[in-house]
Design a protein that fits this description.
Helix content is about 45%, strand content about 15%. With about 300 residues, it is α/β, with parallel strands linked by helices. It has a 9-stranded mixed beta sheet with strand order 1-4-3-2-5-6-7-8-9, with helices on both faces.
């Protein structure tokens, strides 16, 4: 079991959050502890901010917190952190399955699956349980933020923070303005993102924003090139890494993101924009049908060990 604390009792104390305060946010809720949610929680805690991690069940919560502990153990093995760092970081992450425990958080981040209905339910819950001054954040990478905000009674306090995976190591975050996001909300969350050590890119609500919209056609075309037999997977990787100075090729990049996630992004962008460059490659669809999801389960375009290192 992870060293992260699993608290179900009431949270004591008031947040110091004020809408006019662009500096100090002392307690943040993260809802959904998948790969992105765990990375977001870790990054916030590393900045010295308390995190309330909300999951759907005790079993899911225990599993995800344990996985976070394992993730940090790998960082220790790489000499990227110490055992003391891990203990300190996990001491600030408190897990719960009760929405009541997020009531006094000044900022709440949704990191559930890239599905509008799932995100809609989370934001309706936020609107019901959170104090009026709280800022509501979505980590969506492709969905319409303004449509998500519309299910709340505080659209001016809804904003997007599109973190990229791996969250603790990727220095950029897209800060997404919805049609009704206020300047006060933007400035406060910008200050929060900078406190996390992120470079902020201001973007406006449009499917795929900047990073997803630009990277997806490259990934999709690499998959089609492989499917058409133009080159091998390794040939494609080497061509793009050496030719364009990329840290990893497009196929391993897709494996790292999660092939099911990449497929969901493509489907959303294709449905929203109707452009053929976003039509998912049949090769990708086949891999996902076969349960080959990339690094998360060890098999995608390449095979990986438990540490996410390529085997072949």
């Amino acid at each position: 079991m992870s060293e992260a604390k699993l608290k179900i009792e009431d949270i004591v104390g008031e947040s110091s959050f004020k809408t006019s305060d662009t500096g100090r946010i002392n307690k943040v809720a993260v809802v959904g502890l998948g790969i992105m949610g765990r990375g977001i929680a870790q990054t916030i805690s590393a900045a010295g901010i308390d995190v309330i991690a909300l999951e759907i069940s005790k079993e899911r919560l225990a599993e995800t917190l344990e996985t976070l502990g394992i993730d940090l153990d790998r960082e220790i093995q790489r000499w990227a952190m110490t055992k003391a760092d891990k203990k300190s970081l996990l001491s600030r992450i408190n897990g719960t399955i009760s929405p009541d425990e997020i009531r006094d958080c000044g900022l709440l981040i949704e990191a559930v699956d890239e599905n509008f209905e799932s995100k809609k339910k989370v934001f309706q819950m936020f609107d019901q349980f959170c104090k009026p001054a709280a800022i509501l954040v979505s980590n969506t990478s492709t969905l319409n933020l303004s449509k998500i905000a519309a299910v709340t009674t505080r659209q001016e306090k809804v904003i997007g923070m599109h973190f990229l995976n791996p969250v603790p190591k990727t220095p950029v975050v897209e800060l997404v303005r919805g049609t009704k996001t206020s300047n006060d909300t933007f400035q406060l969350v910008k200050g929060f993102a900078e406190r996390l050590g992120k470079v902020v890119i201001e973007v406006f609500d449009y499917p795929g924003f900047v990073t997803t919209r630009i990277i997806i056609p490259m990934l999709n075309e690499a998959m089609n090139v492989l499917m058409q037999g133009v080159s091998t997977a390794e040939g494609i990787e080497q061509a793009m890494k050496l030719g364009y100075n990329l840290p990893m090729g497009p196929l391993e990049m897709a494996d790292t993101m999660g092939l099911d996630e990449v497929l969901a992004w493509m489907e959303t962008l294709f449905n929203e924009l109707g452009e053929s460059k976003y039509r998912p490659s049949p090769f990708l669809q086949q891999l996902v049908r076969e349960g080959k999801l990339g690094k998360k389960n060890g098999k995608g375009f390449f095979a990986y060990d438990n540490n996410g290192k390529r085997i072949h």
